[in-house]
Amino acid sequence: MNTRRYVLPLMLSLALVGCSEQGNQKAGANQAAGGGQQRPPSKVSVVTMKQAEQPVTRVLPGRAVAFQTAEIRPRVNGMIEQIKFKEGSTVKAGDVLYKIDDDTYAASLEEAKAALAKAEASVPSAQANLNRYERLVNSGATQIEYENARVTLLQAQADVAQAKAALQSAQINLGYTEIKAPFDGVTTISTVSIGNIVTANQTTALTTLRRIDPIYVDLTDSSANLLELRSAIAAGRLKGSPTEADITLTLEDGTKYDKTGKLDMAEMAVSETTGTYQIRAVFDNPNNLILPGTYLRATVIVGYENGFLIPQRAANRNANGSLTAKFVTAENKVETRTFDNTQLSGTNWLVTSNIKDGDKLIVDGFQWIAEGAVVAPVDAKLDENGFVVEQAAAQPPAASPAKP
């Protein structure tokens, strides 16, 4: 009797516990199912694709180079008497930069003037003597005397020419005592001071003059890109001429330079060590914002091609290096597409295949959605860097057919 009295309550307790656990499991399942039905599709920002003629660009590294450069050196010997420019200032062509003591050169000029006057004074008497012998050559004067008179005149005339040349040289040397700017430009620090002795064509420059408005930018591109560009032009895929395209600059701090440049020349040789060739562009530089030696990045338009633009921020690369991007299908499901042939177009990728007008590209929110997931696309507008700046209302999902 005692055993039965304990067994019966134990069996009832186990039955009650089992019923309670089963009820809890059903309630949890019902709550989970209810939560899944209430969760809405994720919102994603999309833009509608449209084919158009787009620029094909290259981003190339470069260095600024002065448009003109001249190392200023003396052309005569002497002592620096005056320095007539402010170091680092802008000077005009013909402005006097240095004045060399000219006393010696002024004296040489006066000496040359006197020598010329002396030489010129002997010409009339030699001419008169020749004329006299010319009249007497047939009446007593010998032919030798006549020839000697003619030679004397020629020597006097040669002395005049020599004196004129010496005078001109003296004038030039005196002019060289004023060292002038050969063109408009900006000076550097002077390497000499007043009182220093300088020599003609010395190794050390007195200062350097640079013209930096306009300014050159030397760019570097690979020979592989050059071959690819030529192939695209030959195949007719690219329109336009790279030599006529505008070139834009990005400064070292990431800001855009407000002037556009033009291609000036392209080196017709490839470096044997780097496999690159050089391109030179020219830019207006009215405020001297770009200085020689500055590192820059240039965006060069190399042609135009019909295609679709995919912002770089909206694309990825797969394990094979191919470009990938996510789209929204007509059923509002996520679809990943791969593009093998791509070109750079500013801050976008230019693609020509596996895409058509009206396709909706996901430009934001694609990092957290899986392939085939149902989403709520929201039309968006992008800025020049591919960031979303404006969004429309979310598009409602397609209504499911009513049950009969």
TrEMBL record:
One of its GO terms (cellular component) is plasma membrane. It is found in: Cell envelope. Residues 109-173 form a coiled coil. Residues 109-177 form the Multidrug resistance protein MdtA-like alpha-helical hairpin domain. It comes from the Bacteria. It comes from Rhizobium rhizoryzae. Residues 214-302 form the Multidrug resistance protein MdtA-like beta-barrel domain. Residues 69-208 form the Multidrug resistance protein MdtA-like barrel-sandwich hybrid domain. Pfam families: Beta-barrel_RND, BSH_RND, HH_MFP_RND, RND-MFP_C. Residues 308-367 form the Multidrug resistance protein MdtA-like C-terminal permuted SH3 domain. Belongs to the membrane fusion protein (MFP) (TC 8.A.1) family. The keyword GTP-binding does not apply. SUPFAM superfamilies: HlyD-like secretion proteins (SSF111369). One of its GO terms (molecular function) is efflux transmembrane transporter activity. One of its GO terms (biological process) is response to antibiotic. PANTHER family: ACRA/E-RELATED COMPONENT OF DRUG EFFLUX TRANSPORTER (PTHR30158), MULTIDRUG EFFLUX PUMP SUBUNIT ACRA-RELATED (PTHR30158:SF3). NCBIfam families: RND_mfp (TIGR01730). This is Membrane fusion protein (Multidrug efflux system). Keywords: Coiled coil.
